[in-house]
Design a protein that fits this description.
- By secondary structure, the chain is mainly β.
- The strands form 8 sheets. The protein has a 4-stranded antiparallel sheet with strand order 1-28-27-26. It has a 4-stranded antiparallel sheet with strand order 2-3-4-5, with no helix packed on it. The chain has a 4-stranded antiparallel sheet with strand order 6-7-10-11, with no helix packed on it.
- A hairpin with a 4-residue loop joins strand 10 and strand 11.
- It binds 2-acetamido-2-deoxy-beta-D-glucopyranose (3 copies).
- The site of one 2-acetamido-2-deoxy-beta-D-glucopyranose has 8 residues, from loops.
């Protein structure tokens, strides 16, 4: 059963979740409750700037004839193309277009920054020849890219789920693979297919984050989420090997599987999805924060656990593994979130897909609802914010794409309307005066209610 393909009614939603994981004491790495400023109640709407927006997508074909031929033979069907992942480095933004349906000619593209036009055709990355055709698949090429991650070594990592027709009749035409491009030369560095025993029937690998310490580019680790079969695949670049990690706290919370947005009601049982990393701590370990899509909770795990291949392949000390994953709090009702980014001040930004909003959390404060704020909420411009990135610029920005995915899946997009929007805001301006500002005092009280599960 694919949550995306066939929503099923859940009859159990009215049951209160009596047994629920208690928030454990997540101790922030550092307490910076320094001064008190009045806390803003309304979001900082106007700090967001529209960068690109489209009613429908088009691609930059080499010439008029090739575009026309692609339309005539069904290789390009504009209304089947829905942008999903975004990433930014320097003067380029990267955009993914997974093959949800047929007629998606390329799955990863780029556009210039700052923008020269409002709604330009996408430029396939690195070029047209890198993209495969689902009807005669060459698995050395890109098939269906979901999301990307640009690391501090100017490399673009992507997860290619290898599935096409994900919304109609899902078809795993190629194994999922991790692909890496060097953005200084736009050349391919790595293409690593996940071994068959790490891919389950109906897996969907849809998010990736990369962990590098002390500038050791050759010792990178990638964490890839399997959102439909609830696992995280860990890949070590130095070992050129991967292993699959699983935990019950990667599962969706069935009490958070009901989504209501813009008059649409559907049920998604998507598991582990949003990922973000804190910088290395004094033990040179990094905390990974994560959440399933069908959940209002945020969780954490030490990456030392994920990176220890023996723990997962030998099954040695399972109690250490089980206890390493903990819930740190919840975002409250309808606090569904897809993806996340953390800036240099260790402030986390996250999408709130059911609220057409972006939230923030200063990770030096406890993950309590009073310590969370919304930096923007707008049912028009942020209709289903589906991917979010914090860039590595000197002045950092938070980037968000909204794409109306539920309308695309369960109703029909109106192509006279702007359907896809990419917006950005300066991270400092976005949090100014909110409780996410490290200069603003937060609460030390831990939430006691059960708002997180109704
Ligand atoms: C995708 O779905 C379309 C429409 O149902 C079908 O014609 C096409 O063969 C499918 N492609 C693959 C590779 O499954
Ligand atoms: C990495 O491993 C894969 C298979 O597991 C292999 O095909 C590939 O050649 C290896 N790459 C390098 C750089 O060793
Ligand atoms: C949403 O954004 C649009 C465009 O910036 C703006 O005109 C509108 O007032 C915003 N709505 C709210 C509720 O802020």
């Amino acid at each position: 059963m694919h949550p995306l393909a066939r929503p099923e009614p859940l009859l159990v939603l009215s049951i209160l979740c009596a047994v629920f994981i208690k928030a454990t004491g997540y101790t922030p790495i550092e307490n910076r409750f320094s001064s008190i400023f009045p806390v803003k109640s309304s979001p900082n709407q106007d700090v967001f700037q529209s960068i690109y927006e489209w009613r429908f997508l088009d691609f930059a074909y080499p010439n008029y004839e090739s575009r026309l031929a692609a339309i005539q033979n069904g290789k390009f069907i504009s209304e089947n193309n829905l942008p999903l992942g975004i990433d930014v480095l320097g003067n380029r933004i990267f955009i993914t277009t997974p093959r949800w349906k047929g007629g998606v000619p390329a799955s990863l593209s780029w556009l210039p920054l700052p923008p020269k036009e409002r709604s330009p055709p996408l430029q396939p990355y690195p070029d047209w020849s890198a993209h495969g055709d689902p009807d005669s698949p060459d698995c050395s090429k890109l098939m269906s890219v979901y999301r990307t991650f640009i690391d501090e070594c100017q490399r673009l990592w992507l997860i290619d789920a290898g599935v096409v027709n994900a919304t109609i009749r899902i078809n795993q035409v190629c194994p999922p693979k991790i692909v890496v491009f060097d953005l200084t030369t736009d050349s391919l560095i790595l293409s690593y297919e996940l071994p068959p025993d790490q891919v389950k029937q109906d897996s969907l690998h849809s998010n990736i984050i990369v962990d590098i310490r002390r500038g050791q580019c050759n010792d990178a680790y990638a964490y890839v989420t399997d959102v439909w079969r609830y696992g995280v695949v860990v890949y070590s670049l130095a070992k050129n090997r991967s292993w699959r990690t699983t935990h019950h706290l990667f599962n969706p919370n069935p009490f958070a599987a009901d989504f209501n947005t813009h008059g649409l009601n559907f049920q998604w049982l998507d598991g582990v999805f949003g990922l973000s990393l804190l910088p290395p701590n004094e033990y040179n370990d990094r905390i990974l924060f994560y959440h399933p899509m069908a959940s209002f909770n945020e969780f954490m795990v030490s990456t030392a656990i994920l990176r220890d291949e023996n723990l997962w392949t030998s099954g040695a000390d399972t109690s250490t593994v089980v206890k390493a994953f903990t819930v740190i709090g919840d975002r409250g009702k309808d606090g569904h979130s897809s993806t996340v980014g953390i800036d240099r001040q260790n402030v986390m930004f996250y999408t709130l897909v059911s609220q057409d909003a972006v939230g923030c959390w200063d990770t030096s404060k406890p993950y309590a609802r009073k310590n969370l704020a919304k930096i923007i909420q707008n049912a028009t411009t942020l209709y289903f914010p589906n991917d979010l990135k914090v860039d590595r610029g000197v002045e950092q920005s938070v980037w968000v794409i909204s794409n109306r995915l539920p309308t695309y899946l369960y109703a029909e997009l109106n192509y006279d309307d702007v359907n896809f929007r990419i917006q950005r805001a300066n991270v400092h301006e976005a949090i100014q005066g909110t409780v996410c500002d490290p200069n603003v005092l937060g609460t030390n009280e831990v939430d006691t209610g059960i708002e997180g599960c109704y």
